[in-house]
Amino acid sequence: MKAFPIIVSSPSGAGKTTIVDAVLKKNKTVSRVITATTRAPRKGEKNGKDYHFWTIKQFEQAIKKNQMLEWAQVHTHYYGIPKKSVDGLLKKNICPILVIDVQGARTVKKAYPQAVTVFIIPPSLKELKKRILGRNDNTQDIEIRLETAKKEMQELDRYDYALLNDDLKKAIEGMAGIIAAEQCSTGRQDLKKLKILK
Fold first, then answer.
1. How far apart are alpha carbons 27 and 20 in whole angstroms?
2. Are 130 and 65 in contact (CB under 8 A)?
3. The pLDDT of residue 140
4. Is 118 exposed, middle or buried (0-12, 13-18, 19+ CB in 10 A)?
């Protein structure tokens, strides 16, 4: 199998991180891409495992040298994906999983046309609001997130797969199934290496 990037997007609160984390625990042919940030590590976070914790100077140099696949400045901090984080996994024939927003997904798909894109859909906006409320009590923030969710869901037809998360166990199985099916696709095989064809 030729490794390929797996792009996973969803509105905030739809469960993408939970689903991806569950798949990563069971499947060793995939790995999360470690992103870079200039913010300080939070308690328990380790450099090179959770994030690449860079200085502003390091990050800006990486941008200038065109070493970032995509990046953004959020308030006073930079966040982004170093190209080497993706390419390093592909060289090891491991499928990199990128949990990113719809804008980032477009950028990555352009750089890696062989990437598979999966959009995780919440059961309803009402349920999404309930999930966001469970994580955040800032009413203004919740309304902004819901408006963003509506805009993000308009990008759904750009994705290869739509995965409904109304039952977490089924959604995890669905994600695992998508990855397995794509890995078995004839277009992703080195057919000359398959002994049966010799």
1. 10
2. no
3. 64
4. buried
Confidence band of 135 (pLDDT split at 50, 70, 90): low
Is the separation of the CB atoms in 164 and 124 below 8 Å?
Answer: no
Q: Do residues 121 and 165 make contact, with C-beta atoms less than 8 angstroms apart?
A: yes
Q: 194 pLDDT exceeds 70?
A: no
Domain boundaries in the chain? Answer: 6-183
Nearest of 115, 78, 22 to residue 67 by alpha carbon: 78
Radius of gyration of the chain (CA): 18
- In sequence order, what are the beta bridge partners of 97? 6, 32
Whether 55 shows a pLDDT value over 60: the answer reads: yes
Please identify which residue in the block is written with the tokens 């490794």: 3
The answer regarding whether domain 6-183 maps to CATH 3.40.50.300 reads yes
- Residue percentage of the chain with pLDDT more than 70: 92
Average of pLDDT values for 30-44? 92
**What ranges make up the beta strands (E) of 47-198?**
52-53, 68-74, 77-82, 95-99, 116-121, 161-164
Looking at residue 197, its pLDDT comes to: 52
